[in-house]
Structure formats: C-alpha cells, structure tokens
Amino acid sequence: MYNRLATTYAILNLIENVGDMLNRNLFAGPQELRWTTKSTFEQLYYSLGAKYIWGISRQASRLARIIKDRAPGGLAASAARRGVAFALAVEKNRQKIILSHCLLAVAVVSAIDPVIPVVTNQTNDVYYPALNWSDNFDWMLMKELASDNRNVLVSPISLKIVLALLYEGSSGATEREFQNVLQFGSKKEVRDQYHDTLASLQVSERNEYVLNMGTRIFLQTEIQPKQKFASIAKDSFNTDIELMNFSDANSSSHSINSWVEKLTNGRISQLVKPDQLSETIMLIANAVYFKGTWRNQFPKNQSFSGKFYLPFEDNFLTITVPYMTTEAEFYYADAPSYDAKILRMPYRGDRYSMFIILPNSKGGLPSLLKKIHLHTLKNLLYLMDKRVVKVTLPKFKFDYQARLTTTLQKFGLVQMFQNTASFPGIARGNNTLLRMLVVSDVIQKSGIELDEEGSIVYAATEINIGNKIGETDAVFDATHPFLFFIEEQSNGNILFAGKLENPLDEEALPLAPRPSD
Fold first, then answer.
1. Which residue, 512, 377, 361, 491, is CA-closest to 442?
2. E strands along 44-198, which residues?
3. pLDDT average, residue stretch 75-81
4. pLDDT at 123
5. Together in a domain, 45 and 114
6. Is 115 found in the same domain as 14?
7. Mean per-residue pLDDT for 467-479?
8. CATH of the domain at 170
9. Is 73 found in the same domain as 12?
C-alpha cells in the first residue's frame, strides 16, 4: 500500500506542477492557449504517451478521493483538480421537412417531472464530469434561444440525433456544413458516437426514473428507404422507418401524434396538424420524456410562498411564487468568473443530475449568458465540491416551442434548407420526389415540471438530514432568474438546457412564422 501511495503522490505532484501552470493560462486568448497546450503537450506527449496522460488526468481525481485523508495539506485533491485542468487544456478545441417540398419535423418533445420510486439502498453520490462533457453546439443553441426574457427549454441531444441522421444521408456541400457546424467526423465516427450515446441513456431497472426516447422517420409511400440507410438508422440511431401516405393528411397526422403521445406519456398530444402534411415527403420526429425524483428530497411541509424578482427595465418587479426548500449535501461551486454559483441536484438512480447556475445579482442573467462557454463551464464543474447547502427553489412548470430554422442557418447549416440540398443516401424511387428532399422547417417542442412531488414518502427521514451532516456551508436561494441543464453523467450528454425567467409563465408562445412565410 505504501508503494502505491508513493507512486500516486509522484503522479499527483507531476500533475500539480503542470496543472498549476495550465490553470494560470487555461482561459487566456486563443493564441496564448494554443502556446500553452503545445509547449506542455510536446514535453510530455512523447515521453509518457497521449493515452497515459489522459489516464493520469482522469484517474487522478478518483485516486485523490481515496487517499485525500492521507495526503498532507490537501495535496491530492488539489492536484487532481489541476490534473483535470491539464486534460482540459490539451483537449481538442472544438467548438419538417415541412410543407412546400418535404417535412422534417425535428420536433423534440420532452417533459420532465418527479416520480415516486421503489425505495432502494442508494450508493454514495460521487460526481466526476465526463472527459468529453457536452460540446459547443449545446451552448450555442442555448445562448441563441435565451436572448429574450421568456422561459426556455431545449433538448440539444434530441436535435443532434436528428441532424446526425440527416448527415448520414447527405453529400457534397450539405455534408460539409454538418461537419463544420456540428464538428462531425467521418460518418462511421458519428454512428459509433450516437450508438454509444443512446446506449448510455438506459432505462432504470429499479423504477428510480423514467426515460423514454425515440426517433422515427415517416416516409412517403412513393419512395423507399435505401437498405443501407435503413440498417444504419436502426442499428446506430435506434430509429425505425415507417411508410406513410401523406396525401391522407388526417390519417397521417393521427398516426404521428399517437406515436408521440404514447412516448411522452400523454404530455404532447399534437405534434403536427393535417394541414401541415399536404405536400410532405418525409418527416423525422424525435421524442424525449424524462421523469425523475430528487435524490435529496424537498419536504412538502417546508414549502412556502415567497417573492421572486423579475428584472424590468432598470428595476425589479416582484411576484409571489411557491417555493420548496431542503438542506443536504450537494456538489456546489462559487463561480467568480461568472459572478454566479453552481449547484448540482442529482436524481435517484445516480445517472442524471440537474445543474442550476444562479447569478449572484438579481439582474445578472444577461451578463451570465454572455460569459458562459463550454470550456470555462466545464472547468468549473471539475472544481465543484460536496458541501452542506440549504437550497430554496421555486416550483415551476412551463411549455416551450421554437422554430429552429433561422437559428440553424445562423450557425452555418444553410445548404439543407435550399433547393441545392443533397440527401442522396436516404431514399430511392420517384426521382422527382427525391430531388425535392430539402429541409424547410425545424421545430422543437418541450415541457418541464419541477416540484417536490414524491418527497412525502421520504419526508420523515429527509427533514432531519441537515442535522445529521453538520452545519450549513452554503445557501442557494434561487429567488431570481437562472439557467439550468440536465445531464446524463457517464457520457456528459445534455438532455435538456433551459432558462427560468418567470415561474408563473406556463404557456408557450406561438411559433414564429417560417422564414419563407
């Protein structure tokens, strides 16, 4: 044991020194960051090997947890965190079809709410952000949609699954745009990536949460899917293809809406209307439904009504909203660079967590949105520590829908919306119809409910948990607008990302007109 500890200390000391230098430069400008990455990486890459370096940085955090009580002066924990910063610094910097011709209803249907689980023994809550956590597209999408003062909820993973299916069937300039905007590698790499992603989104065997995710391609009966595309869609993306006579719009819309309604447990009953299908050739629909219960419960008998502050011009309006509160151990971090604090709230089952990023000031959300970035946020997640936190959150629910066509064009996905779009790998048959395969609309619908439901089962135990774990280390009072996201922990995929501006604003705004309208 002593030899292993000594070896570990040596590794951690190496990471301590390298990581300390990188931490000072991690968020420098692009030129400085490239220099730091290059100089450090070249010194260690050839002597240790790239895989060994990645292994050290990833395992250091785990080793530190095991031996931190034996390490003098908190060396292990400090070095491990800096080791993760080292891994981040050398990480590669990446940053319906509807009406007229075709209908690609990239309609991401989502709902999130609590569920009462079967009571099971829970393991200790340990959180390590995945090394390949999230990507730039997730936060580009969130920042673009969060620019107004309305509640927002998007599902990046759902949208990317549908775009990955389109990428599989694309060629030429259309294919290159997918590669540039979404940082897609080869088609085989993308297939493998999403096969692993979908495999990680497992259903709970102990009824601790519910996760329904499905993708289906509805294809006009006059054309047939290519055998290779159908095989890849099924094997890599868990996607079925269903032939449909879109000229019978009433029957087609009923079939599509029934599929979505079943997958979302009745939360979304109408994805498409008959008049949207009259000239449809293909529709791709993706639906996600997540229903989870908090690991640390919010006792119902501690809920109360209180003020929530809404920024209004140069001042604030106050509204009275229902709050829930609890006190327990959570992963928490102060984030001075964001002028905010971050809280992780795990769901039962140890696979999913909600993160809340709360500005320190009541009117700090616009500034936070400007500052937030994949790499800075990722680094902050690695620096989170488990602390006793008194948490106060508003209960809320709202629906959201957005037309994403203009947003995707703004990001650089332009070709797929034009008559020059090229999707030769998807289908065969009527050449006239195949030439009309062009994306004309991308729509996402979603909904969320957040409250303390189910906590009554555990109220007697959970009410006193604060007294068992020591004094409160931090207070997290979410009494003004904040950001949140829900991740799957093993691969770091963001299922949902959102913004709460007003807990009482439940209705989704009507969809904006299509760009061509």
1. 512
2. 107-109, 112-113, 152-154
3. 46
4. 65
5. no
6. no
7. 69
8. 3.30.497.10
9. yes
E strands within 9-139? Answer: 107-109, 112-113
Least confident of 93-102, 271-280, 286-295: 93-102
Determine the Cα–Cα distance for residues 320 and 307; give it in Å rounded to an integer: 5
| Distance from chain centroid for Cα 190 | 18
Task: Answer yes or no: do 81 and 188 share one domain.
Answer: no
Q: Which of 449, 481, 508 corresponds to the end of one domain?
A: 449
Q: Are residues 116 and 223 in the same domain?
A: yes
> Residue range 281-295: average pLDDT?
85
pTM: 0.75
- 159 and 286 fall within a common domain: yes
Vertex 325 angle, CA 401 and 445, to 5°: 10
Distance set, CA 331 to CA 74, 327, 342, 476 (Å): 18, 12, 8, 12
Domain span holding position 82: 2-90
| 86 and 112 inside one domain | no
- pLDDT of 251 reads 93
Give the residues across from 292 on adjacent strands: 209
Tell me if 118 sits within 8 A of 208, measured CB to CB.
Answer: yes
The better pLDDT of the pair 291, 306 is held by 306
As a whole number of angstroms, the distance between CA 302 and CA 279 comes to 54
Cβ count within 10 A of residue 456: 14
Residue 123 neighbours by CB distance under 10 Å: 7
How many angstroms separate the CA atoms of 357 and 484, rounded? 6
Is residue 81 a part of any domain in this protein?
A: yes
Contact between 202 and 488 under an 8 Å Cβ cutoff? The reply is no
Tell me, yes or no, whether 71 lies in a domain: yes
How confident is the model over 397-425, as a mean pLDDT? 90
311 assigned to some structural domain = no
CA 282 to each of CA 100, 227, 306, 383, 486: distance values in angstroms, whole numbers, following the listed order? 12, 16, 49, 46, 31
- The phi-psi region of residue 94 (left if phi > 0; otherwise alpha if psi is between -120 and 50; otherwise beta) is beta
Query: What average pLDDT is seen over the chain?
Result: 75
Cα 409 from Cα 515, distance rounded (Å): 11
43 and 114 part of one domain: no
Count of domains in the chain?
Answer: 2
